[in-house]
Specification:
mainly alpha; Rhopdopsin 7-helix transmembrane proteins; 71% helix
Length: 294
């Protein structure tokens, strides 16, 4: 039987005569606890960075990390009793709903990089307005993820079908927004390379290029995560991805942890701080230097 806790699965309750499948396997408790600890440690370090670098735009990122931690707590608890709705809703809601919070900070960070390098004049739209646009769309994605996470537990077939449609719509929107974001990053990066010698950051010896490379990296990880999750829900619960837990950790947990680690290694707040220290310095032009030498 599907509800035998000692069996291999699938697991889930029977609601109104309808079998609701929460998991096609028993969730791995050890992996859940491990990622709870990893995300928790990442959150603590990022909180210290917010105060150290005054990077308040990382607050959504931190909230996303907290959500991920509690999401994997839900999976750890689901290992003990995989037919209970509470842990299922918790892990489904937070693991699906937290990445848009990460994305909000990623979008805002590009705006900080553009402003720090004084490239606003090349932006097609104001960096702050662009970040606002991305964040608003991301909030919409977050709302769709929340509704989708709760609906399957109701046992209503129509609710389950609508939940699948919502999650696929939200993930498709995320893929579209990430693509536009990467194009915006590429445009800014191209302008920065063209004017590299005139940038105050270059004159001050600040390695600003790595911030663009890091942005491409985290955006690629977000894209990969959304793509695989989209394929997962498109295929359905009987197909390979959803019936093998390794895909959740390999293409969701690991990319999100990697994004947290990359931002600790190359934090945009450092660029803002370094540029701020040299911003008021008047850089002599080459002609004046030659006159001074004479």
């Amino acid at each position: 039987m599907v509800n035998e806790l000692d069996g291999p699965g699938p697991f889930g309750p029977v609601v109104n005569g309808t079998q609701i499948v929460f998991y096609n396997y028993r969730p791995n408790g050890g992996a859940g606890w491990a990622f709870l600890v990893i995300f928790g440690l990442g959150v603590l370090v990022h909180v210290s960075y917010v105060f150290w670098l005054r990077a308040c735009h990382f607050i959504p990122f931190i909230l996303g990390g907290v959500g991920e931690a509690f999401g994997y707590y839900g999976r750890a608890k689901a290992h003990e009793n995989p037919i209970v709705a509470g842990p299922y809703i918790l892990q489904n809601l937070l693991i699906l709903g937290s990445p848009p919070l990460f994305a909000a900070t990623i979008y805002m960070s590009l705006g900080r990089i553009i402003i720090a390098l004084d490239l606003r004049r090349h932006a097609l739209v104001s960096p702050r307005l662009t970040a606002f646009f991305y964040v608003i769309i991301d909030i919409g994605c977050f709302v769709t993820q929340v509704f989708r996470a709760v609906m399957p537990a109701s046992g209503d077939p129509e609710g389950i079908k609508m939940g699948k449609t919502l999650i696929m719509s939200g993930l498709a929107a995320q893929l579209g927004v990430i693509t536009l974001f990467v194009l915006s990053c590429w445009h800014s990066h191209t302008c920065a390379r063209r004017e590299a010698n005139d940038l105050n950051a270059t004159r001050a010896g600040i390695a600003w290029r790595k911030y663009y490379l890091m942005t491409y990296g985290v955006a690629s990880l977000m894209f990969l995560r959304s793509l695989v999750r989209g394929i997962e829900y498109f295929q359905g619960e009987k197909w390979y991805i959803m019936t093998h837990e390794i895909f959740l950790y390999l293409f969701d947990a690991v990319p999100m942890v990697t994004i947290m680690a990359l931002y600790l290694w190359i934090h945009p707040g450092r660029l803002v701080r370094h540029v701020g220290r040299v911003k008021n310095y008047t850089w002599p032009d080459e002609a004046n230097i030659m006159l001074e030498r004479r």
